[in-house]
Amino acid sequence: MQVAEMKIKLEEKIKALEKEREGLLEEVKQLKEVAELSEKAKDLENEVNKLKDELEALRDKIPQELLQELSEVASVSLSEESEEESDEECPDSEEEVF
Predict the structure, then answer these.
(1) Mean pLDDT of the region 19-35
(2) Is the dihedral of CA 68, 70, 74, 76 positive or negative?
(3) Are 75 and 67 in contact (CB under 8 A)?
């Protein structure tokens, strides 16, 4: 009788340990994924910061007057494009026949 009880207890213990192992393996997997994503985010953040620094350094090399002029040209160009798109979307009322 004692041997049968010991066998049952050991089988129960094995099942419990296997279940715990499965849970731990899943948790390890998820934590590894989180660590990888965190590292990727950190690398991207560093790259973005380097690019911002490079952009600022390049802008510092260009005279301010030229940057202002380029900015004005870009805004005029954008507003012209916006007007062209607006004209295409809304045909003139002169073209309509009543």
Answers:
(1) 98
(2) positive
(3) no
